[in-house]
Amino acid sequence: MAKEKATKLEEEELQPKEQPEKPKKKTKFPLLIIIAAIVLIAGAGGAYFFLTGKGAEHGKGSATKDSKEVQGINFALEPFVVNLMDQSGTKYLKVSVQIELSDAKLAEQAKNKTPQIRDAIITLLTNKTSDELITPEGKLLLKDEIKQRANQILGEGTVINVYLTDFVMQ
């Protein structure tokens, strides 16, 4: 009997052991599709709120109602190209100006008075030097002076702000 047990054990050792079945690998493809769909939907929702501005309105709350910012209409003037009043040589300035008017109705008045506005700005620019205009403070001062002169022509309080949309010195 002992021999039989020994031969059985030897036979069992010689026979390849049956390996337990490995669980079949499940593909992760459906999971990836679900994740991609969630990301796509979240991105579309974010884009909707960003483009429609509804998300920004929610965050503003009552602060928007309290602050009364005047939204005007921008009136663009043709670019100015002038000689600056430099002692060191001839310097040129090319600047594009937009003025923000307090009311849309004033755009027609500004259009009719464009020659007077342009003349006032050209006179102002030709009396400046490049040293005055090169600094940020100089540009702010120039904007204030343009605003004052435009308000003298169009009426006080008409011009809210002045924007320099192009500024090149040479």
From TrEMBL:
Region listing for Disordered, in residue ranges: 1-22
Top-level lineage group: Bacteria
Compartment annotation: Cell membrane
The keyword Membrane appears for this protein: yes
GO CC terms, sorted: bacterial-type flagellum basal body; plasma membrane
Family: Belongs to the FliL family.
Record's protein name: Flagellar protein FliL
Organism: Thermodesulfovibrio yellowstonii
Underlying gene: fliL
